[in-house]
Amino acid sequence: MNVRSTIMDTNSFRAEHAADLSQALRDLTHKREQVLGGAYRLFYRRPVHLVKGQGQYLWDAEGKKYLDVYNNVASLGHCHPAVIDAVHQQMGQLNTHTRYLHEGILDYTESLLATLPPEINRAMYMCTGSEANDLAIRVAQSWSGGTGIIVTQEAYHGTSALTSGVSPALGSGQPLSPTTRVVPAPDAYRIGHEHLGAWFADQIQQQIDDMAAHGIRFAGLIADSLFSSDGVLPGPRGFLKPAIDLIHQQGGVFIADEVQPGFARTGEHFWGFERHGVLPDIVTTGKPMGNGFPVSGLIAREEVLATFSDHLPYFNTFGGNPVAMAAAQAVLDVIQQEGLQAHSAQMGQRLLTELKGLQQRYLSIGDVRGAGLFIGLELVQDPATKAPDQQLALDVIEALRERGVLTSVAGPHGNVLKLRPPLAFQEQDIDWLVGALDQSLQVLGAR
């Protein structure tokens, strides 16, 4: 575990970068320092001052246009008119909590459940992915009677006290819960594809055994099926099944954190877990659910959720409010009406092909992997040893920023470019991204 947070500190502005900023940017960063808490971070050595967004594009205060290749919050695209209209109309009618009857939450839940396996048939709503994962862990512990949660090496599942305790990516400054156990990420680039499923299941069994040795009862595994924070590790389809079968045999639950791989992102299926042919006990989601409007959800098998909900009332003042449900319904409608799952598959495959072509020209590109519009490009010092090249990755990120392309890095070594654009991404954007990446690698003298 790193002292610094891999997801917060790797690609971030620091005080020593201020001397290279324009006066306007220096003034803004100074003002942030004076009025906001010190836990916040900015992207880039030269932060971007954004003022406008539309689709997959962003503009800064000086009018420069950027291609967003990182944002799954505005998953449909920035400022999508259908979401804006839905929120505006509902805000003009009513916004209140869920202790009054309203059709919006019921209609949306029926639409949402229709995208999931029939066994997953109950939903609850919150405002953030952290809240959804927090509740999911509580439900898992209630169902299993245990407290032990297993996560991967660089997992990130939220910012509450409970979810921070299962988020190694926050760094050693944020201690893990004593009942949390960590397994290595299923890195097919280094481990290989053939036995990845059995290997991963064995890693989980070892930690279940360790829990038992310390008097901790196993409750479950929480993971996103693309292992995004671990460096975007989709692995071969189906490799997760042995691990999930083991978890169920051991009396635990599988919490599928779909904040990043869900809502048509992979192109293969609507939900990321579906590519593995497994049935989660609990599914959580957040960011892409409302295209930037704060809404999140927990969807579960009735019998699993009942062990919690039949004994404890749950109330979230803003969770499931009519405006949030209107935003979420608009997102779901647009994905289905505009065929964005198929679009994600098509654009993702073309982008993957173009990046693999670029890989043939640069030894520094060790691996290109992904599913749909979620791709990891790993930069290495030597393709034979596969030694990570964090410095090159960070320099590439900055060079891309200068060429109007915004993205960031992932993985324990911060050497994987995390390419996750809004679903509005088009063919001309692939040309922009790949061209900018090619130029950046050339300028930096990449091998």
TrEMBL record:
Gene3D superfamilies: Aspartate Aminotransferase, domain 1, Type I PLP-dependent aspartate aminotransferase-like (Major domain). Keywords: Aminotransferase, Pyridoxal phosphate, Transferase. It comes from the Bacteria. Pfam families: Aminotran_3. Its cofactor is pyridoxal 5'-phosphate. InterPro entries: Aminotrans_3, Aminotrans_3_PPA_site, PyrdxlP-dep_Trfase, PyrdxlP-dep_Trfase_major, PyrdxlP-dep_Trfase_small. GO terms for molecular function: transaminase activity. Belongs to the class-III pyridoxal-phosphate-dependent aminotransferase family. This is Aspartate aminotransferase family protein.
